[in-house]
Write a structure and sequence with these properties.
The protein contains 14 helices and 14 strands. The protein has two domains: 108 residues, Aspartate Aminotransferase, domain 1 (Alpha-Beta Complex); 222 residues, Type I PLP-dependent aspartate aminotransferase-like (Major domain) (Aspartate Aminotransferase, domain 2), CATH 3.40.640. By secondary structure, the protein is an alpha/beta fold.
Length: 349
């Protein structure tokens, strides 16, 4: 029995298909070999050659001065915000974006940064007009507006490049810097069909997660100007994110950049197929964006559907108000997708 299997009631081994997130992937044999063979050093001293290569390669690909390898996307965003903003200064961010809703208000708790939330538009982006309206006057009663934080993708949606460009231009016209939370940056690039620098160039700093669509065990990279990255490096140490022989993780990131970027289109195609299947089955309200499918089952079938799928070792993601999230990733191949579709047909058919 391997890590992808479990014993069913008959004692037979059946595959486990986990659709909760693209963070649940396991390193494949090639990635494991790269990790085992990684040349390492002490990264806090700047001596880990594999970490240095990862930071330099991503910085070059995205057109940035420098990069900083950190344990998680949350720390990448947090160190980025701390590097941009001082205490009593403000970041303007979408109300449903991760920085505002899913990162425990770390920028405020640990950095004294005010978080101003604004509505997210239907395409997942922000409104330039709203950004300008939220800009604080030079008034001692107000925080100092310093930064706009964007997100792409958002809930799987690819925010159009024109929308991101308009918001970034409006922010800079107001004297604000721009941070891009690109947790699924390469999914966005795949969906947009643009060059990596086209999107990355719109943010002064960019956070790129390696452990989601790219399938590494851990790690994100913050990219940006040298002065921002230098400050972020100090904050990484302060937050406990300074790792020693981190090359074993960075090697997974380098492997992923070489092998797991172009294949993201396969995840998007499988998600599209799954969404169309659910629609044909009249399973409920269905929406699909990049590698994610969102299903609100009809007739309060949420719990029965979840139970049925669990019996066949298929795990579905949860959400609010009966919404299910089904995320396609590199460990869900065509064989897995066919099994998932078969069980869905058995339930709804």
């Amino acid at each position: 029995m391997n890590q992808y299997q479990t014993a069913d009631r008959t004692g037979h081994n059946t595959p486990v298909y986990d659709l909760r997130s693209d963070t649940v992937t396991k390193p494949d044999e090639g990635m494991r070999r790269a990790m085992a063979d990684a040349e390492v050093g002490d990264d806090v001293y700047g001596d880990d050659p594999t970490v240095n290569r990862l930071e330099a390669r991503l910085a070059e690909r995205l057109g940035k001065d420098a990069g900083l390898f950190v344990p998680s996307g949350t720390m990448s965003n947090l160190t980025g915000l701390l590097a941009h903003c001082g205490r009593g200064e403000e970041v303007i961010v979408g109300r449903d974006y991760h920085i505002a809703s899913y990162e425990a208000a770390g920028a405020s708790v640990l950095g004294g940064i005010a978080i101003c939330t604004v509505p997210v538009e239907v395409d997942g982006g922000l409104s330039p007009i709203v950004i300008r309206d939220e800009l604080k006057p030079d008034d001692s009663h107000k925080p100092i507006s310093r930064l706009v934080s964007l997100e792409n993708t958002h809930n799987g949606m690819v925010v159009p490049l024109a929308r991101v460009s308009d918001v970034a231009s409006s922010a800079r016209d107001c004297g604000l810097s721009v941070h891009l939370d690109g947790a699924r940056f390469f999914n966005a690039i795949t969906g947009l069909g643009c060059a990596e620098t086209d999107l990355a160039g719109l943010g002064d700093s960019v956070s790129v997660c390696l452990s989601k669509g790219l399938g590494t065990p851990a790690g994100s990279v913050l990219l940006g100007p040298s002065d921002i990255i230098d400050r972020a490096r100090r904050y990484r140490k302060m937050l406990g994110g300074g790792m020693r022989q981190a090359g074993v993780l960075a090697a997974a990131g380098l492997y992923a950049l070489d092998h797991n970027v172009e294949r993201l289109a396969e995840d998007h195609e499988r998600a599209d197929h799954l969404a169309k299947t659910l629609s044909k089955l009249e399973a409920g309200q269905v929406n699909q964006a990049t590698n994610m499918v969102f299903l609100t089952p009809r007739d309060e079938l949420n719990d029965p559907l979840r139970a049925h799928m669990e019996q066949t070792n298929i795990t579905l993601g949860g959400g609010s108000n009966g919404l299910m999230r089904l995320v396609l990733h590199k460990d869900i191949d065509d064989v897995a997708l066919n099994s998932i579709v078969t069980e869905l047909r058995a339930f709804f058919g």
